[in-house]
From TrEMBL:
<keyword id="KW-0479">Metal-binding</keyword>
<feature type="domain" description="ETF-QO/FixX C-terminal">
    <location>
        <begin position="38"/>
        <end position="88"/>
    </location>
</feature>
<keyword id="KW-0411">Iron-sulfur</keyword>
<dbReference type="InterPro" id="IPR007859">
    <property type="entry name" value="ETF-QO/FixX_C"/>
</dbReference>
<comment type="similarity">
    <text>To ferredoxins from P.putida and C.tartarivorum, ferredoxin I from A.vinelandii, ferredoxin II from D.desulfuricans.</text>
</comment>
<protein>
    <recommendedName>
        <fullName>Ferredoxin-like protein</fullName>
    </recommendedName>
</protein>
<dbReference type="InterPro" id="IPR012206">
    <property type="entry name" value="Fd_FixX"/>
</dbReference>
<comment type="function">
    <text>Could be a 3Fe-4S cluster-containing protein.</text>
</comment>
<dbReference type="GO" id="GO:0051536">
    <property type="term" value="F:iron-sulfur cluster binding"/>
</dbReference>
<keyword id="KW-0813">Transport</keyword>
<dbReference type="Pfam" id="PF05187">
    <property type="entry name" value="Fer4_ETF_QO"/>
</dbReference>
<keyword id="KW-0535">Nitrogen fixation</keyword>
<keyword id="KW-0408">Iron</keyword>
<keyword id="KW-0249">Electron transport</keyword>
<dbReference type="GO" id="GO:0005506">
    <property type="term" value="F:iron ion binding"/>
</dbReference>
């Protein structure tokens, strides 16, 4: 029997570092194409478009895949750090 990807991902656990998000978006009037693309590319759905046309991030369920880091950190649009030790995603394999 094969498991669905969603079922596999559901096995992961997260320990949220309250009030210390490991990803921050810099203030922006309107998002760059790369930042806007994160609303479709982030596998954890952490990025969203607000009613004001800006991008916000809620990294509580972040997989630490670094897609947003590669696309948006070099331009200074986001700050990206690994969560502190003991926080963040806990992958469950098998
Ligand atoms: S590191 Fe990956 S999972 Fe985490 S917010 Fe960025 S794109 Fe999403």
């Amino acid at each position: 029997m094969t498991a669905r990807v969603e079922e596999k991902l559901y096995q992961n656990r997260y320990l949220v570092d309250v009030r210390r998000p490991h990803i921050r978006i810099m203030p922006h009037a309107e998002p760059s194409p790369n930042l806007l693309a994160m609303t479709r590319l982030c596998p954890a759905g952490c990025y969203s478009l607000t009613d004001r046309g800006q991008i916000e991030v809620v990294p509580d369920g972040c997989f630490e895949c670094a897609t947003c880091r590669v696309l948006c950190e070099p331009s200074g649009e986001i700050e990206w750090n690994y969560p502190r030790g003991g926080f963040g995603v806990l992958f469950k394999f098998g």
